[in-house]
Amino acid sequence: LFDEKDCWDQHLGLCALSWCCPSIQWASTLSSDRVRLVGSFWVALGVAAIGHHELSNLTVGIAHVIFVSVAVYYRQKLREKYGLEQGTPETLTQDLFVWCFCYCCAAAQEARQVNYVRIAQTSLVPFSAELRLQRTAAPPDAEDNSEDPDAVSP
Questions:
Q1: Tens digits of per-residue pLDDT, 66-101?
Q2: Who is most buried in 49, 90, 111, 140, counting CB within 10 A?
């Protein structure tokens, strides 16, 4: 994902929000129109606030573990959306460590990725099946002539 170096120099507002209110930054990133990984900002904010802050002490850290798992899942989805390596033990470990030990940095990285990098166009195929079907389908006139082998074309 987007490198965290020079973050404060170039994107002060984004980094300040990630440092002071990482739950708001995370929810804003996942619900942005560019990626739309979560349908609602408020749902993502609720998951982050409850899982990361409110219930962590009450559940002796279990809520925090659940939230980190959710955050790593969506970080992997971001990697997939941007055509980056994802789903490997190495990327899962990296994402787990960044969310466990510096969640402000994780929120800033993800926000910078979404705000400043174009999404990879992995779904575009030059000659998809639909195009091939259109190209190989016979025109309507050719079907009529193929039934009568003695018919002469004008």
A1: 899 999 999 999 999 999 999 999 999 999 999 999
A2: 111
Instruction: Please give the Cα distance from 88 to 5 (Å, whole number).
Output: 24
Q: How far apart are CA 18 and CA 56, in angstroms?
A: 19
Return the closest-CA partner of residue 113 out of 74, 147, 153: 74
Q: CA-CA distance, 99 to 92, in Å (whole number)?
A: 11
As a dihedral over the C-alpha atoms of residue 85, residue 89, residue 93, residue 94, rounded to 10 degrees, the angle is -20
| Residue written as token pair 């003695």 | 150
Query: 78 with 1: CB under 8 angstroms?
Result: yes
The percent of residues in the chain predicted with pLDDT above 70, rounded, is: 70
User: Could you tell me if 71 and 99 are in contact, meaning their C-beta atoms sit under 8 angstroms apart?
Assistant: yes
Q: How far apart are CA 33 and CA 28, in angstroms?
A: 10
Q: Crossing angle of helices 41-48/22-30, nearest 10°?
A: 140
